[in-house]
Design a protein that fits this description.
The protein is of the alpha/beta class and 279 residues long. Helices cover 53% and strands 12% of the residues. Strand 4, helix 7 (161-171) and strand 5 form a beta-alpha-beta unit. The chain starts with a helix and ends in a 5-residue tail after the last helix. Bound molecules: magnesium ion. Magnesium ion binds at residues 94, 96-98, 208-210.
Amino acid sequence: MNRLHYILVSLMLLSMITACKTSNSAAKNNSTKQQTTRKLGDIALNGKVYSAIWQQNAGEFRALCYQAYNIATHNIDTELKTNRHQRPLAIITDIDETILDNSPYAVTQAMRGNEFDNKTWMEWTSKGSAFAYPGAVKFFNYAASKNIEVFYITNRSTKEMEGTQRNLEQLGFPFADEQHIMLMNNTSDKEARRMEVLQKYDVIMYLGDNLNDFSKIFYKFSQHDRNQQTDKASEEFGSRYIVLPNSGYGNWESALPGYNYQLTPAQKDSVFLKNLRVY
Ligand SMILES: [Mg+2]
């Protein structure tokens, strides 16, 4: 290689390296620009979509459901071995996001730019087309095979009986009748309905996605107090209380703004952001 040739090759290499560096730093600048144009907003609405993406797609969601129902099955076997019950046995379960998956409703509403409202909710439940939570049908049929009755205590309204019953029946849930599906009459507090079942039955387990499904000690308290009550009852979870995953909604969502249902999306965002830890 003569001297002129050597200089030309060196210049070419240098220009290639410079071009490469320039394009890397341009890419970095672009990515910084992209990030800075993205903003948090309408967290309630978008959060429901992200939760639904997880609920409808994640193997981890399915695994959590199986985990809950496997523990519940194990609890039945343990309970039956004790032979300590004189009265008939029962299990009390919630319906929505405990045995039925309503994420299609949340997605449809979000795409329309809305959150929950009674009218569209009843449109959805009247279809009776919700899928079952993974493991739910098998678990409740196992309970029925051991002569354990199942009571569905739900805050669906009395107008929703037909669609609810049809949905449960078609999916193969046992005891899908008017005696066992206990809808909301005048209060979302489930305590009176739980007491009604407890008059005749020994209730060995409660299943739910919302703390209100387990005991009145959680009903309509502040976020701080709900969390404190949860810590106090920690030993009950996985034994008497079986919790199913629902990151889309629940009383936690209402507790954060102090059960104020009149907030605008911007006001909700502000409440949510105030309650987040950052670093
Ligand atoms: Mg529920």
